[in-house]
Amino acid sequence: MDKHMLLIITALIMGTAARVLLMKVDYRQYPTYPQSYLSHFTLGMIAAGLGAVAIPALVAKEYVAITFLTIAAQQFRDVRNMERQSLDNIEPTELVPRGTAYIEDIAKAFEARNYIATLTALATGLGIQLGMLIKIATSLSILVGILSGTLIFFGLKRLLRSHEIREIAEVKEANIDFEGPLLKINDVIIMNIGLKSAREVIKTQGMAVEIIPNDANGIAILSNIGQRQAILHNAATQLGIRKDVDEPDFTPIARRNPENGNVMMIIVTMAPDIPCLIEAVKKTPVLESSKRKPLDSTVGRKHY
Questions:
Q1: Any idea what the Cα angle at residue 21 is, between residues 123 and 150, rounded to 5°?
Q2: What pTM was computed for the model?
């Protein structure tokens, strides 16, 4: 077999494998239904193919052919737009919406994963080509390429790893109380619950937690409305909720204590389980759009 063809096939397999490994099946179940799974697998293979042929094109001095990588960049931006639009379209069907910030974060992740497939294939091809240049055995060249691609894949995966709420804050159980119709969590007023029957349901089936930021950076992140909405969505998805359409009294809510920046969250589920709620909140990803680091600035350090 032609050495360049061997390089392309190996790099294509490595890039495609990288994209497949990034398609996780978890409680979110997106995009793991069959149609979307096939769509992302195909796009990943195309992304890997673009990275696989780049090195042979350079070796053959077909420099014009490298410009097709710009087409890949446009294609991957279209992937982000496609995912954003898909999630926006189904957002009204969610009892507890993801929120625009969470949707944008998901869309960016899908775009980045295709770049990882391309770069993994590119690194694999480069490793194989270097092995050929120093004239080692073909099998060893392929091994070098596979190791190069593997290192790039795991390096990028680690670099793009999402942080979780557990890394920026502590989550504790909180007390639910009523002052007349006013719902309070740890003495912080959350909302007005007019119906006595709704108050009784909240007392028996409601759960509340207090999210306590570790520092000023955590306070800034948790002040973001999109981040709090992501926490509510994740908790409702995993634990289920008591509410149905047009039942605002049972809508999960997260309010910020303006005195200290702590966030009070309440959710009404069919079967209350505080340890599971705490774990669900802790494992919620920190959204890129909500990340703030006021402590990195002179003014921020002085203010806080």
A1: 30
A2: 0.84
223: CB partners within 8 A, 6+ apart? 256, 261
Q: Annotate the chain with DSSP letters as a single string.
A: --HHHHHHHHHHHHHHHHHHHT---STT--S-SHHHHHHHHHHHHHHHHHHHTHHHHHHTT-GGGGGHHHHHHHHHHHHHHHHHHHHHHHGGG-SS---HHHHHHHHHHHHHHHHHHHHHHHHHHHHHHHHHHTT--HHHHHHHHHHHHHHHHHHHHHHTPPPBGGGTEEEEE--EEEETTEEEETTEEEEE---HHHHHHHHHHEEEEEEEESSHHHHHHHT-HHHHHHHHHHHHHHH--S--TT-GGGS-EEEE-TTT--EEEEEE-SS--HHHHHHHHHTSBPPGGG---GGGSHHHHHH-
Q: ∠ at Cα 148 (146, 151), nearest 5°?
A: 105
Query: Over the stretch 30-76, which tens digit does the pLDDT of each residue have?
Result: 555 666 778 788 888 888 888 888 888 888 777 776 676 777 777 77
pLDDT, residue 32, reads 55
